[in-house]
Amino acid sequence: MGIEARPPGRPRDADADTAILDAALELLIERGAAAASIEQVARRAGVTRATVYRRFPDKTQLLIAAVESTYGNPPPTPEIRDLEHLLTGWAAALADPRQRRLLRRLYGAFEDYPEIAAAYEKQLGSPRSDARTAVFEQARDNGELPPNTDPQVLLDILTGAGWQHLITRPDTSTPDDVEQYLRAVLHQAGFTPETRRDRAPRPIKE
Amino acid sequence: MGIEARPPGRPRDADADTAILDAALELLIERGAAAASIEQVARRAGVTRATVYRRFPDKTQLLIAAVESTYGNPPPTPEIRDLEHLLTGWAAALADPRQRRLLRRLYGAFEDYPEIAAAYEKQLGSPRSDARTAVFEQARDNGELPPNTDPQVLLDILTGAGWQHLITRPDTSTPDDVEQYLRAVLHQAGFTPETRRDRAPRPIKE
């Protein structure tokens, strides 16, 4: 990108912040929460350990901040129009190889670093879950999902199917592959796309 | 258990085998595949590292053998009578705290030790998956599941719901708790228990 003029403010600090968070996220993805260390992060970010510790009291807090930084802090409020929009968005996220590795690392971190998973869930997962269950309720009300649909159960089903995809399908899966997979899951859960239900019968030639 | 007479055969070797595999499994559950080491296993088993290396060329092979040993090698062929039997058996397994930790560790090991997950899947997962999909087919054929049920998709749904349960519900979940959870998932997937469908209407008093 070439050399850019530093913006005013506290430029050196902001540079170090970015370098530290980027390095922490890379190391989390490459090695996992247990194997990543403050020392490795400092080295990769080109700063001293003291510089890292001035910002983060320990590795857990650093990794939480790194995860938050990748999803935005605060993350944008998810806007999901309908079930089709939910499907394509979810499929795109699950087809991103880097995202896949990060999600597997987050699952793997659960046992020893539950605070990281909790932070992810609180910051990103919870508002997104609300947006998703709202879409399920809407789809149930307009007949795309069975009347006895439980939005929370359906969220567990799709989220779980995502975890399953991450360890049983290749990281080269395309958004179309993942969408087909998620669509089959939704179909088994009673999803009938509106287009299919509303399709007018073909005019009969007279 | 008191001091028992050694059985004939190669008792010392067998003792060492058991001690090594038990120690490896414990360490896998406690620390995860990345943090567990041959040295720790040897120390906990009360043998030298050389004793471990005579049996297993590396940590991966040792952990694979440890996982195999806990499920039996070869594992017993699963016999699942019907969907109710599948539900209660699955719920019992998922409500075992030690099993829960092991499963989370297996998921967590996927990124750096895919061979362990592959061995688990090949040895235990695959025959069990076959037994489960056979039950889904049977349930579909007798009307407990919708006619358009895809047994493979349903297996992904239930397996995924299991992964989701492992990181969102407490390890104190009882078999009843887990069964209720899995039952809600199956219900959303169109499961209608036979007892409900076949219940005769109550006789009307005349």
Automatic annotation (TrEMBL), chains A, B:
Residues 14-74 form the HTH tetR-type domain. It holds the Pfam family TetR_C_11. Residues 37-56 bind DNA. The keyword Phosphoprotein does not apply. Keywords: DNA-binding, Transcription, Transcription regulation. Transmembrane segments: none annotated. InterPro entries: Homeodomain-like_sf, HTH-type_TetR-like_transc_reg, HTH_TetR, Tet_transcr_reg_TetR-rel_C_sf, TetR_C. PROSITE patterns: HTH_TETR_2. GO terms for molecular function: DNA-binding transcription factor activity; transcription cis-regulatory region binding. The keyword Thylakoid does not apply. This is TetR family transcriptional regulator. It comes from Nocardia jinanensis. The lineage of its organism: Bacteria, Bacillati, Actinomycetota, Actinomycetes, Mycobacteriales.
